[in-house]
Amino acid sequence: MKDMEDNVDRAAGFLKGLASPHRLMILCQLAEGEKSVTELIEATGLAQTSMSQHLNKLKDEGIVTFRRDHRTLYYRIENETAFKVMSVLHEEFCS
Description:
Helices cover about 65% and strands about 15% of the residues.
């Protein structure tokens, strides 16, 4: 029972990280593949400071990761569970 409680707490924390319309918009874009910050801003209409905050939250939660190509950052979904969830959500809501 203790393991289930721990897993439920982890699942709730994971879903809390996804439970933002702005973060879901970002993740819908990333469900299609790696995108630069500029591409994400253009696709979502979020301001750069807001985008940075949301990407940092997703990064801190271990949901996304990035790579740097000179001065450009490219983000992608890192967490396999998040990718599976976003694949379903993308099919149902993002298309």
